[in-house]
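Review box. Two proteins, two foldings.
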Amino acid sequence: MKHRHTNLKHIAIGAIVLTSTLAFAPLAVAQTEAASTTAANPLAQADKDFVQAASMSSSTEIDAAKLATANSEDKDVKSFARHMMLDHTKLSVQLKMAAPHGVTIPMNNSDTTVLGPLRGLKGKAFDEAYISKVGVEGHKQAVAAFEKEISDGQDAKLKKAAQDALPTIKKHYQMAQDLAVKKGVSQ
């Protein structure tokens, strides 16, 4: 039991270190082309689209969660944000590990159209926008992207990564919907 506790502690510390490292990256980067490929390892368009959508989704979730820790005063919103930061950091690492050799996964390609409007908001106004745009709408789009990769993707490892991550993304979507109901945010 002590060995398992130690492993979990190391995993948590690794996620915190990775998250801390990401904190010093630019908060928002214009949309970049994901999945740069080599001639030796081209990806099908469906797989390129998935890599772009998945990496942007997680990057946006992480950066929005950082904003939430600073701009929200609500303990439930901050708790949700911390949960999103940890899970999406883990999902980003899993996506990178699933990518075929020669495929680059961008790690800092947040959607500036989502983050930009959040920056100037504080308190309840921030909470409502964050829950609606990032929590509910962001996860709704992510579920669709992961389901599309599962049905249309050509790369077996990326399809498997999408299948493995989909339950977590669906759980996040449900958590966001529940938080919206609890806080009276229209969906």
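Next protein.
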Amino acid sequence: MNLFCFGLGYCADYLSAKLIKQGWQVSATCRTSEKAAVLEASGIRPVLLSGKKVTVTDLGKADHILISVPPEQDGSDPVLNFAGAALAALQDQIKWVGYLSTTGVYGDHQGAWIDEETPAGLLSERGQRRVAAEAQWAATGLPMHYFRLAGIYGPGRNSLRALQNGTARRVVKQGQVFSRIHLADITRILEASMANPNAGRAYSVCDDTPAPPQDVVTYAAELMGVSPPALQDFATAELSPMARSFYGENKRIRNNRIKEELGVSLEYPDYRAGLSALWESGTY
């Protein structure tokens, strides 16, 4: 099996390492020779972009494609811009394409429970760009699978680490909840989809328990035996425009589809399980 990654971020890197151990061949795009050397050292075939388009030769024998590159500011998809022709030429070879999207495509639902079939609420600009990018990929005719990721946490990216670094905050907005998902469970979901492709399907990638963000920080502090940071009211908290925009969407997302269609049993069904495991492992 041969996976080609457009972008090798947090999720793609974790998945690639696991697949290589299973005997997969993995390739990934990069932009610098330094990064290419790092990829090679980890067993990944680098494809150095350097402003050029990806060719059929670059893709090689890839039969699985993972896209983790966000859309441009105008909503266009950069991967389609520089690799669309090569992907189209290998359409018969490619068995599965995974697009890492976001739960932002659902918009705001004022805290209500939703699923993949719920009509979108009011969309942020980021959500609109993701909706546009998903539509562009759907028009390619490739065997697309859309993974709408909730807030990602895992080793190196979690409230325990934020507390250790002094960057954790407890910002309170009445009634606000967020969904989240552990990195290991994202990988389980992607692997399950690769094993059982269903072209055109979208999946909400989240755990069972949407929760207020301040509760997550409080629990992490309890695990560490430290005092949590003081509560801050959202209305007066100093937040970047990006951080503040996330609070403009409030929804509880059902994850039935990943369980019923992909047969996934989450290793970390809520933030307590995920943070506890990270703390006990000492690798947070």
